[in-house]
Amino acid sequence: MGKTNKKIKLHKKKTSDKNANIKWIVLIIIWTFIISASISFVSNSLLSGVGIFFAFFVLVSIILIGIIFDIIGVAVTAAEEAPFHSLASRKVIGAKTAVKLIRNADKVSNFCNDVIGDICGVVSGAAGAIIISKLISKGISNNQTVLSLIVSATIASLTVGGKAIGKNFAMTQSNNIVFKTAWIIETIRLNRK
User: Fold this and answer.
1) DSSP states along 127-170
2) What is this structure's pTM?
3) Which of 17, 111, 146, 191 is deepest in the core (most CB within 10 A)?
C-alpha cells in the first residue's frame, strides 16, 4: 500500500510531414465528394426506373462494394511488407504496388474503410428509401414505418455482418488480398499504357 504511483511518460510517435497530412486531408475530402456524388447519381439513375428486384440487386451490390473495400483496408494494415520485396526483385506484377500499399497503409485504410465504406453506407440508405417508396407505390405495404424499420435493419445487418466476416478473412489472408489488389491495380495501369 505504501507504493507511490510514478508518472509514466509515453512518447508520441513522430508523424510524417504535417503539410503532406493537410494535403492528404484536403485531397480525401475532394475525392469523397466526387465519389459520393458519382455513386449517388448512378445508383439513383439505376433505381428510378427499374423494378423492385433489380433495385434490391443494386442495393446488395452497393453493400458488397463497401464490404470488399473494408476487407482491403483491413488487409493492408495487417499485411507484412517483407514477402513482397523478393517478388518485386523478380519483377512479379503487383509486388511493387503491394509494397506501396503497405507503406501507405494509413491512407489506403482511410480511403477504403472510411471514404468508400461510409459512402456505401449513405448510398445504401438512400437506395433503401427508394426501395421503400417503390414497395409502397406497388401496394405491397401501406405501413411506411414498419417497412422502413425492416429495410433499414436489413441493410444494417447485411453491412455489419458482412464486414465482421470480412475482417476475419482480411486478417488471416492479408498478404494474399493485398497482392491480388496490387495485381489488379498494376494490370489496369499496364493496360492503359
Assistant:
1) HHHHHHHHHHHTTS-S-HHHHHHHHHHHHHHHHHHHHHHHHHHH
2) 0.80
3) 111
